[in-house]
Amino acid sequence: MLTKNRHSRILRGGMAVILSILIVTVMMPSFAFSASESVSVPSAKGTIKQSGGVYVRSSSSLLSSVKTTLAKNKVVSVSSEKFTATTSTNTKYRWCYVPAYKGYVRRDMVSLSFGNVQGTTTATVYGRSGAGTKYAAKHTFSKGETVTVAMKAYDKYKNKWYRVKYGSKYYFVLAEYVDLGVSTSEISAIKTTAKAYSKVSTTSTYGKVTASAGTVVRSSKSASSSSKGTLAKGTSLNISSESFNSASSTASKYIWYYSPTYKGYVKSGDVSLTYKTKKGHTTDSLNMRTGAGTGFSKSGTLASGATVYRVMNAYDTGKSKWYKIKYGSTYRYVSAAYVSFSSSSGGSSESTTESDYEKSLISAGFPASYASRLATLHKSHPNWVFKAVDTGLTWSSAAAKQTASNGSNAIQTVYAPSYRSTDKGCYNYLKDTYTIRDGSTWVTASKKAVYYYMDPRNWLDETNIFMFEDNGYNSEYQTESIVEAVVQNNSVLYNNASLFVDAGKTYDISPIYLAAKSYTELGGYTSMINGKTFTYGGVKYKKCYNAYNIGATDGANAAIRGLVYANGGSVSKDYARGTSTSHGRAWSSLSKAINGGARYLCSDYISNKQDTRYLEHFNVRNGLSSVGTHEYQTAVFSPKSMAYATSKAYADYGILNKKIVFYIPVYSNMPSSVCSQPSTSWSKDNNYYLKTLNFTAGTDTYKQIKNSGLYYTTSFTQNVANSVTSVNITALAAKSGATVTGDTGVQTLQVGTNKFTIKCKSSSGMTRTYTLTIVRASS
C-alpha cells in the first residue's frame, strides 16, 4: 500500500512557505457586485485617421486632461462608445474608450472595424439611432429575434446599450434586453463540430427538434442561463445525457438534454429522441426508479447479474450518474455505480481475468469492499490505475474526529433536512430552526451526511472517482479546451481559460483541477474576479481578485474578506488592510489571482499531503489530530462537485480512455456496508428530541424535561418516598412525525433503584435514548 509522497513539491523560485493558520473557505460568495455578460462583447479595431494624430483624454470631454497622443494610422482596441448628447448623433458628441490607454478619443477621429457576437432579444424592444431613449426608434425587434452585437455603448447617464447589426444597418438596443450567445467564430466551430457529429449521429442516441418555434441551446440546465443559439424545427443533434432539475417530478420542464454537438442543454419537451441501446448487466441487486434519483418512486427491482439495456446517461439533482434503461416497453432509471458493460458470462477467460484483477487490488492494499467496485470500473476503463493510500487510521476514529467540531462540515439548506445536524449548537429542536454558519443558507451537516461523503466506497464510479484523481499536470490531455468545458458557465473564467493552463505548468498542478476548484467556489458569479471597488472596515478597495475564494472564511462578509486577503490583508488581524506579499499578493489582476492561488494550493495543500479533491476536505493523511482541520472548503459535498465538473469535461472531449491515476484513501476496520445516503425526502428530519418528560405519583408531578427550555442531557434521576409504589411516565416528541417508545405509562416501583428507558425516533430514523432512574426510599 502506498503512503503517497508527492507532497514534496517546492515552488519555483524558492521553498514553499507554509501558513500556520487554518483557512477554511465557503463554496459561494455571499454577495455579488454586479452582473456580467455570459459571453464577452467584442471590442472594435480602431484606426486613427486624423492627420495630426489625436489626444487620448482622461474622460469623455474636451476639457479633461490629455493622457497621451496617438499618431495617424495607429491601431488600437476600442471596448465601448460613450454618448454625451441625448438626441444628436453627431460624432463630436461620441467618444471611444481605449482600454490600453485608459482613456477616450473622439469618435470622429477614428475609424472602427467591429467584431460580432450573436444575441437574442428577451423582449420586444426598439432599435434606436443612438444610445439613449430620446434617440429615434428606427426598428422594432420582436422577442426572441437574433441580432449581432458589435460593441458596448453607454448613454449620457451611463446606462449600457449594445450596438447591434441587423441586416446591413446598425442600431442601438438597451443591453438588458439582449441575451448574449456565441460569437461568429464560435458559431463556425459549432457548425464544424455538428458536421463531425453528424457522421455518428445515428449510431448513438440522437434527437430531432420538434418544437414549432425551435429550441434554444442553453449554457446550463436552466431557462435563465445564457443562450448559445437557436435550433430550428427539424434540426438533428446528438444527445449524450439527461439531467433532472427536480428530485421527484418527471415533468418535462424539469428535464434537460445535453448535446455535445452544441456543447449545451435543450429542453426535453422540445426534442424527440431516437434511442440506441448498449447491453450491460447489474453488479448487485438494485431498484429501478421512474427518474434519476432516490427521490423518485421505485418501479421494480433487478437482481445481481440481470441484463440491462442502457439508452442514455442521466444525472440527478446532486449530479450523481444514473443510466436510463429500456425495460420492456418502458424506460426506467438505475444507479450507474451498479451496472457494467462487459461480459459477465461464467467460466470465461475474462471472468477469470477480472477475478485475478480483483485479487491484485486486495494484494495492493484495498479492502474487498473497495476491490469489487474498482474491478467493475476496470472493465469499462482498463487504462485507469488505482492506488491504495494508507491513512493509518481506523474508520471509526477518523469519522468521529471529522464530526467532532460543528464548524468542520457545512451543507446548504437546499439539501433535505436529513442532511442537517440537529446537535447542540446546530439546531433549536423546539423552534425547528438551524444555526446559520455562513451566508443565509449554510448550516452544519449531519453525521450521517458526513459519513456518506467521507466513505470512499460511495464514490467508486465513473463520475465521482475523479475526487481521487492525481492532480499533477499532464500535458497530454489537460488542455485549454478541457478547461473551457469545466468553466463554460462563468464568462470571465471561460474567457481566461489559458491562465489555468499556464499556472498548471508553472506549479505542476492539473489545470483541470484548478478550473474545477475555481468554478466550484464561484459558480457563475463574477463578483470575486471582476475587480470592482468596495468598502470594508471603513477602507476603500479596488482591483482585488480571488479566483479560488482563498481566505474567505466562514461567517459574515466571507467573500469580502476573501478579497481583502487577496489585497494582502491579514487573517490574524481580522483582515485589516495589509501588505503581505505571500503567494504573490496583492492579486490585482485575474492572472495574478489564478497564478497566486495555484502557488498557495501548492504550498499549503499539496505540500501538506492534501493533493486530491477528497483530501482537501478530509485531511486524513496527517494523523488523527489533523482530521477535521485545515480544510480548503467546509462544504462537505465539495469533492463530489469538483469530481463531477472534471469527469463531465473529460467525457465531452473523449478523455476517459486515457491513463489516469487515482489515489484512494483506505481506512482499517471499515464497516461491512457502505455508509448510506441521508433521506432526500423533505418530510423527514433528524429531530429526535423529547420536549417533555414527566411522571406523576398520585397528585404529584415530577418534571424532568420542560418545553420551556432546551435539554440535551439524556439521563435523569429522581428520588421518591417509600409510599410511592407506582408512577405514570409520559413523554412527548418535540416534532410531529417522531415516535416515542419504551417505558411509558404506569410503571411499578421496587424499593431502591428503578431504571426506565424511553426512546425518541425521528422521522428520518435517528434514535435518541433517554434513561429515567427513579429511586424509591426504603421503609
UniProtKB/TrEMBL annotation:
User: What positions does the domain SH3b occupy?
Assistant: 204-275, 276-343
For this protein, the parts annotated as crossing the membrane are none
Q: Which InterPro entries match?
A: Cadherin-like_domain, Cell_Wall_Dynamics_Protein, SH3-like_bac-type
Please give the Pfam families that the UniProt record associates with this protein. Answer: Cadherin-like, SH3_3
Give the superkingdom in one word.
Bacteria
The protein's matches in SMART domains, at most eight in alphabetical order, are given as: SH3b (SM00287)
Protein name, as recorded:
Beta-N-acetylglucosaminidase
Q: What is the lineage of its organism?
A: Bacteria, Bacillati, Bacillota, Clostridia, Peptostreptococcales
